[in-house]
């Protein structure tokens, strides 16, 4: 299939499944599209069992493989999604919560990676470095699907900022940690990554720091240009150029493209919106990026649903997947609770912060994409199956219940 045919198919299916969800299931948009996509996939698999001669499953599996999910997300959609998310997080709000955000996006990722990795190695007999790779790809959170639900729960702005800010940065940090660990676990498949500890540390700071610096520089230059322009179609185009061009430049320079997108989006969404855009331009920029966010997420969750055709489900893999879900929840609890304990002497927290941020730390498409991007090995099928089970559980079970938890706990007046 050509690129145009694939794009058309994805848009048509996303629109159709979105309509089905809106009319019948009435679930949050992204989650509903995922559920309908999974039901459609299950229906196709059932038809293949009934009519095996038609080759339905192999045909769909070939189409899904042709989508190249990991490349589409990591080298295309992710930059736009992160930029769009960062655009709506104000620096003033983030500054008030920066300690929590930084600790959860660094210490939290490290704790989560270690807990999942060690536990998964013990559970499956997987080599510890390979298991840590799984821990790294299973640690980043992706609350896009549930952020609307949390807003509907009328949470305090501080908690919403914690969730949004942490997820934006731990996506970038988690991606860098993943690259470092892949370089150590599969050195022959990633020659550009050093396999020693010092090489790994150097790579981490080079990728993360370089991505942040590039995002700030490009964001600032874009802001300076936009200050001199008062033409909203052109300014919307400039923000799109920043998101796409900056992400591609970061990939070319071998620095963290996700962190670049976050930093650039934060700068344009705050300083750029206040001092570089007219009220009319702000309205159109916000509307454009909200639409980009909604459309890409619809397509992303559609693709996640159909990735079931790329996964092999065996009894041992399912058992390992269930264990991975438990490990991920325990790791997420530690990733939230430990930073809160560290900061408690300096900042007050409500009891609602830990359970809401633990249960609201959803896994998403980036985890599946990272699993698909792994070099071929004997452990890749197991990692992919466990990752897929974890993501589906997280989005559907946690995503559909976190709103009720937030409504119960998230309105306490002392919530910080």
Structure description:
- With 416 residues, the chain is mainly α.
- It has one domain: Na+/H+ antiporter like fold (Up-down Bundle).
- The protein contains 17 helices and no strands.
- It has helices at 3-25, 29-50, 56-67, 69-87, 91-96, 98-124, 128-138, 144-152, 157-185, 197-227, 232-253, 257-275, 279-306, 315-343, 353-359, 365-372, 380-409.
- α1 packs across α2, α4 crosses α11 and α9 (157-185) packs across α10.
- Mean pLDDT is 89; it is low at 189-194 and 412-416.
By DSSP (H or I, 4+ residues per run), the number of helices equals 17
Largest sheet: none
Low-confidence stretches: 189-194, 412-416
- What's the level 1 CATH class? Mainly Alpha
Short description:
The protein has 416 residues and is an all-alpha fold. 80% of the residues lie in helices and 0% in strands.
Structural features:
single chain; 416 residues; mainly alpha; 17 helices; globular; disordered C terminus
Give a topology summary:
Layout: H1 3-25, H2 29-50, H3 56-67, H4 69-87, H5 91-96, H6 98-124, H7 128-138, H8 144-152, H9 157-185, H10 197-227, H11 232-253, H12 257-275, H13 279-306, H14 315-343, H15 353-359, H16 365-372, H17 380-409
Helix pairs in contact: 1-2, 1-13, 2-13, 4-11, 4-12, 4-13, 4-16, 6-7, 6-9, 6-14, 7-9, 8-17, 9-10, 9-12, 10-11, 10-12, 11-12, 11-13, 14-15, 14-17, 15-17, 16-17
